[in-house]
Amino acid sequence: MRVPVVALCCLLILPPALPSHSELTFQLADNGLQCFFEEIQKDVSFHIVYQVITGGHYDVDCYIEDPTGKVLYKQAKKHYDVHVQQAEATGVHKFCFSNEFSSFTHKRVHFNLHVGNEPPLLAVMGERITALTQMESTCVSIHEAMNSIIGSQSSQRLQEASDRLHSDDLNHHVIYWSVGEALVLFVVSLGQVVLLKSFFTEKRALPGAVTT
């Protein structure tokens, strides 16, 4: 019964306020632009990770603007990127993804936005000068392991989604190619049958034909 007791104690000492976290996967149409908005306080750090899962050359344009319209970040035709920055002004920040350079291929994009620094696991960790107790050390280890697991699960989900979409696309191409080959073989076989039949067809003279 030791593990449930430790887990319960960890839940009781966790701080109530946690940083904001958003995660989303969306479709970005060809020649499309899609923006997302998040209110961030001045001097609060934010962390964004995005990745193109499928579509075209797996690239997308991305830029971030603060409430004053200042461009904080801008990259063109990126498959994957990570950006960390402190907000320079309080207000609504804009996170935009653009596929305007592509005229016929839509993209599927996944992005993860984390706003704010994670507070100490224990409220007194920043003030105390003594070593952590065994219970507190166990809670910190569990917390760090869970954060690591969350990151690994997100990475695995992205990889699984990318592989699944790629396999579906490959399956469609194989089906279309197989149907095309079957049609070609049918036409060629029919032509060969007609040609061979013409070789063995007896040509009969018409009645009343004059032979010399």
TrEMBL record:
Chief location of this protein within or outside the cell: endoplasmic reticulum
Q: Which SUPFAM superfamilies does this chain map to?
A: Supernatant protein factor (SPF), C-terminal domain (SSF101576)
Report the PROSITE patterns cross-referenced here: GOLD
Keyword presence, Amino-acid biosynthesis: no
According to its record, what are the GO cellular component terms?
endoplasmic reticulum membrane; endoplasmic reticulum-Golgi intermediate compartment membrane; Golgi apparatus
Record keywords, A-Z? Membrane, Signal, Transmembrane, Transmembrane helix
Spans traversing the lipid bilayer: 174-196
Kindly list the places in or outside the cell where this protein is found, as annotated in its UniProt entry: Endoplasmic reticulum membrane; Endoplasmic reticulum-Golgi intermediate compartment membrane; Golgi apparatus, cis-Golgi network membrane; Membrane
Q: What is this protein called?
A: Transmembrane emp24 domain-containing protein 3
- InterPro entries annotated for this entry? Emp24-like, GOLD_dom, GOLD_dom_sf
UniProt domain GOLD: residue ranges: 33-115
Entry membrane topology: Single-pass type I membrane protein
Q: Which family does it belong to?
A: Belongs to the EMP24/GP25L family.
Q: Which residues form the signal peptide?
A: 1-19
Organism placement in taxonomy: Eukaryota, Metazoa, Chordata, Craniata, Vertebrata
- Classify the source by domain of life: Eukaryota
- Record the organism: Callorhinchus milii (Ghost shark)
